[in-house]
Amino acid sequence: MTTSPVVALAMGILAAIWFAKSGVGTIAPADMKAALSVLVGCAAAILGFLVSTGALLYAVANTALARNMQRTGYFQSLLANLFMAAGSFFLSLVAGAVNLFIPPIPSGLLPGFSHFEIGMVGFVFFNAAAYFMLIPLGHKMWLLLSNLEPENPKSLE
């Protein structure tokens, strides 16, 4: 059982609403920026792992299992999940990096929030959605890698 992108986006929305309602103004902006810099680094690292996952898929694309997956459409679904997760982490990375430079001045758009806090809500949305998009990708990658077998097992000896 895996999650769809719609579920991941819904969970991102719920996380952003929870973050906005939980008293985001009670945390000092300096503390939030320190936590944000760590989370942006994590998003960049996971994005790098997702890029290497694409290289791994290219390496196994010539196996019998991958060819069968291409015939059934499972491989395209796996690639779609990979690109959606990578795109989500990229958006999370961009939102977080931009938010590191936003000053905590009051917003005219949403009274009671600063521009920085609005940016943090956006970052929480993208970050939560990105992590939830890893669930179907991880499940499909596990199925692929756990069922790989060499085409000629005798050549390994």
TrEMBL record:
Top-rank lineage group of the source organism: Bacteria
Residues that span the membrane, as ranges: 38-61, 82-102, 114-134
Keywords of the record: Membrane, Transmembrane, Transmembrane helix
Name of the protein in its database record: Uncharacterized protein
Natural source organism: Castellaniella ginsengisoli
